[in-house]
Request: fold
Amino acid sequence: MNDRLELPTHASTAAPIDGPVVHLAWRLSDSIFGFIGPATEALARAGLAQCIVLVDDAEASRLMPRLPRDVELVTVPDARDPLRLHKDLGDALRTVLQRTPPRAVHLHGFTALTIGSAIARREAGDARLYFSPHLLRALGATAPLLRALPGGWLRHSGLLDGQRMIVNRLEEAYTLHQLTRQPMQVVESAVAPAYFDAATSESRHPLIVTGSQRDDRRGVELFAQLAVLLSGSDLRLSFNWIGRLGAASVARLKAANVGYFEIDDDAAIAARLAAGWVFLAPGDSPGFPAFLAQAMAMGLPCVAMESPEHTDLLRDRETGFLCRSDVEAMERIARLIDEPLLRRQIGQAARREAQSRFSPESFRGSLYAAYELEAEPAPAPLHRLQRPGFAPGAAPAFTTA
Reply:
């Protein structure tokens, strides 16, 4: 049995049409924006016109102003009836594609794939078709069932016909390749320059920082428990949560004497993270764990609860610590607080890893290669992912674009 999995990439094709890149984004969540935000900036930098078709809901209203100004936004009013909403989005996509022959159509998420796959094949002419899953955790949990369906459901459904897959997480690449056996390219999400440029300055007393832009109840509970357990120790620890949470989660943090800072701006988040001694990733992320990558970019030593998303980013005991229990997390935090040299070594290793994988330059190079653009080519590093069930040292290999 071959325990190493090579992901083939797409062969180069004829010269592309000189038209816009059309994105179908469905609902613009933080997870999707973590990819589509840097992607639209990178493609705009390469001189490509772009259009995004999406649902106009509260999250979109918050995130749309952060997109490049020259990106056209075609919004569809939110609706309670999902069938009506799917039809409206499909009609909007069809209208955009019929207006100007596109260079490429990029479908973001499985809902966008089901809505736009057939429409793009009919209306986009010779344009290149791309698909990025973004949220594959739920699919990953059902992957064995899907593979067992007659004829390989996903592989033979027709949804992926003609699609070039661009995947922004190694775990997604593994699961999707197992389901489809199709070529794909890994383009990991980018971290904003503000985090690489920020200067860290540890607070006077030990400070543990974390953050999330979604209401992660499980992560909040674990962080609050650790705050209660460790704040009474001789370490004199303080705890800060950065990001956006619901009212119940905020109340839980305040009851545990955790500082809460509801901020959304990269420079402001970096300034808050800069005082931290240790970054703790307490929960799991349904997509790319942006806060963990941002902390790595700043050179903060990171402790994370073990999950597929966190394992994608951290190498245990090299670029951070992966923990299977709150007790183990407490032990790692205590050791980092006690050993300044270890904090420095782990933080510097994390920063080097982030620079090689998540810098805007690395992202642009990978994305341009996936889109077959000439601008700013960058060599692609080889990443390895340890998977359960494989012998130690025999992890599947994934190539990035």
Notes: The longest helix spans residues 82-99. Residues 1-7, 138-151, 377-401 have pLDDT under 50 and may be disordered. The chain has two domains: 21-189+361-384, 193-357.
